[in-house]
Design a protein that fits this description.
- The complex is a heterodimer of chains A (273) and B (290).
- With 273 residues, chain A is mainly alpha-helical.
- In chain A, 84% of the residues lie in helices and 0% in strands.
- Chain A has one domain (3-267): ABC transporter involved in vitamin B12 uptake, BtuC.
- Residues 112-118 of chain A have low confidence and may be disordered.
- Chain B is mainly alpha-helical.
- Chain B has a single domain (3-269), classed as ABC transporter involved in vitamin B12 uptake, BtuC.
- In chain B, 80% of the residues lie in helices and 0% in strands.
- Chain B contains eleven helices and no strands.
- The longest helix of chain B has 42 residues, at 170-211.
- Classes of the chains: A mainly alpha (273), B mainly alpha (290).
- Chains A and B meet through helix 3, helix 4, helix 5, helix 8 and helix 10 of A and helix 4, helix 5, helix 8, helix 10 and helix 11 of B.
Chain lengths: 273, 290
């Protein structure tokens, strides 16, 4: 099997992920809700698990996905209301605790089931190398729809991300917009985690957006940089994984980390000369 | 002593001791906005343990603890030194990237190990059910020493958290802070698991922060509610025969949700300003942390 047919689908998956998560990452960084990915992935896993235990839904079915997404919708309502109403705690702390409680809930339901550790490792690192054409197609269509929503509502989303207090003072219905934002976020992250695992999705979300912040403060330029960084990191990581026979997801994440380290060094060097 | 009574006394003593320092450090962490720093240290400790397993060093042996400490110290140094000046990059993003990289390193290692997945899982769940009195005494000793250190250094530590802008040798103090956090992480993670350790650190502190901006009342409220929640969790777990760590976590979670509702209701009642301006004014009144 040649390289193109072996790495074609995984690379396409990475391109899809970097396009949607790159844009989402800019918002996530501005809103300082860095760990939203981990919390939402955990909520989706909790929903799928509850569906399996209480409704008998098979673990890998569309119904399980629907159960997971329903729980992320509840989380979206919670985050949107908490951001506006709970002023005593930063939203990132609420996200962190939500993650811990939902992980506790999932472990409570699993008890000490056998084979749990394989599941843990799979959920973390994903199975990027084994992504199939139809799965990629459906995910691509879903991402396109969500991307269109992001495009359509970009102005209110960006205004809230740029300054929450100013948006509230201007009389914007922030709870409604935040709910829509976190709900779209939930859909993207749940689908992306199924494709590539929590760690890779997390790296696609945060690293390209951080690199872009080193070079520009403007949305348009930052978006281009995040996409470029994501695609370069994905290509390099997949080749690296193939060359050294390592896990594809972990190598892509590592390559993104190396791009960030190189950019940070470059920025420091540029400032000193 | 009756076996059941002995079990309860041991568990509750351990929880009472652990919660004091965890709540105090948690208050610092919430005020500094470095919510996930603990997960970075947890993950690095787990990575150190896994490197040890790769070299044939068994989980829980002194050498395994030394390796975990080594990996954690590297993380502490990175957390203290890597402080972006660019206002577009929050400190939490650096923490996130460090966490991602620590996770990647662990996954690559687990990939190459025969029992990699199992050791990854062991670090998540812990084995709090199997604590013994010697472990409780060692934990009390180390926690007391670290508590004393924090009591002695409380001036600079509190100032660094309240106003970090004008403080000399900030990286050194930050390093000391993260080292104490790292040491308790290494001690508690093999016992409680990553999740429960994170819960001990964040949930009581978050409850305390919701009701008071001042340090001592927040510490007392956090410790008190955390302790009551954990005791109820231990009893529920025993009576219902449910998994130990997750039951404690859910008990603390229930108290957190209750506290969230009550404190928000109190903040809304105190606020007399129209809804459009409420965020800023209630924040100022209650010392909001945005």
């Amino acid at each position: 099997m040649n390289l193109a047919s072996m790495l074609g689908f995984p690379f396409l998956a990475c391109v899809l992920l970097s396009l949607i998560l790159g844009y989402l990452g800019l918002h996530v960084l501005k809103r300082e809700v860095i760990f939203i990915d981990i919390a939402v992935a955990q909520m989706a896993a909790l929903g799928a698990l509850a569906g399996h235990l209480f409704l008998g839904v098979p673990g890998d079915s569309v119904h399980a996905l629907a159960c997971g997404m329903s729980v992320t919708l509840v989380a979206a309502i919670f985050f949107a209301v908490a951001r506006r109403k709970v002023v005593q705690l930063p939203i990132e702390a609420i996200i962190g605790i939500t993650y811990a409680i939902s992980a506790g809930g999932a472990l409570f339901m699993i008890g000490k089931g056998t084979g749990g550790h394989t599941h843990v490792q799979d959920m973390l690192s994903g199975a990027l190398l084994w992504v199939k054409g139809p799965e990629l197609l459906w995910t691509g269509i879903a991402f396109a729809v969500v991307g269109a929503c992001f495009g359509l509502f970009r102005k209110p989303f960006q205004r809230i991300s740029d300054g929450y207090a100013e948006a509230v003072a201007a009389g914007m219905p922030v709870i409604g917009w935040d709910f829509l934002f976190y709900a779209l976020c939930g859909i993207v992250i749940t689908l992306a985690v199924r494709l590539a695992g929590v760690v890779v999705v997390f790296c696609f979300l945060i690293i390209p957006a951080t690199v872009s912040a080193m070079f520009s403060a403007r949305w348009g330029i930052r978006m281009m940089i995040t996409w470029l960084v994501g695609i370069i990191g994905a290509g390099a990581g997949l080749l690296f994984a193939q060359w050294l026979d390592l896990s594809a997801g972990a190598c892509v994440a590592l390559a993104l980390g190396l791009v960030l380290a190189a950019s940070a060094t470059g920025t420091l060097f540029r400032k000193t000369i | 002593m009756n076996v059941t009574v002995n079990f309860f006394v041991m568990q509750i003593t351990l929880i009472a001791v652990v919660l004091v320092l965890h709540t105090y450090l948690g208050l610092h962490i919430i005020r500094r906005g470095i919510i996930f720093s603990d997960l970075v240290l947890d993950q690095l400790a787990a990575f150190g343990v896994m490197v040890g397993i790769g070299w044939g060093i068994r989980y829980g042996t002194p050498l395994s603890y030394v390796l975990a400490l080594g990996a954690t110290l590297i993380g502490c140094a990175l957390l203290a030194v890597l402080r972006p000046r660019n206002r577009l990059i929050p400190q939490e993003a650096v923490i996130g990237i460090l966490y991602g990289m620590a996770m990647v390193a662990s996954l690559l290692l687990a990939d190459k190990m025969r029992e990699g997945g199992a050791s990854l899982n062991a670090t998540l769940v812990g084995s709090m059910l199997w604590v013994s009195w010697p472990l409780v005494w060692v934990t009390i000793g180390i926690y007391a020493a670290l508590g004393l250190l924090h009591a002695l250094c409380r001036g600079p530590m509190l100032r660094l958290t309240e106003d970090p802008s004008a403080w000399p040798r900030r990286a050194a103090w930050d390093f000391l802070f993260f080292v104490t956090q790292g040491i308790i992480t290494i001690l508690i993670v093999p016992v409680a698991g990553v999740l429960l350790a994170y819960g001990f650190l964040m949930i009581p502190a978050a409850i305390g922060t919701m009701f008071s901006r001042r340090w001592v009342p927040a510490l007392l409220i956090g410790w008190g509610t955390g302790f009551v929640a954990c005791v109820l969790g231990v009893i529920t777990s025993y009576r219902m025969d449910s998994p130990y760590g997750p039951t404690l976590m859910l008990a603390m979670g229930a108290f957190f949700v209750l506290a969230l509702v009550v404190s928000t209701w109190l903040a809304c009642r105190r606020s007399t300003v129209p809804a459009g301006l409420a965020a800023g004014s209630v924040g100022a009144e209650t010392g909001g942390l945005r």
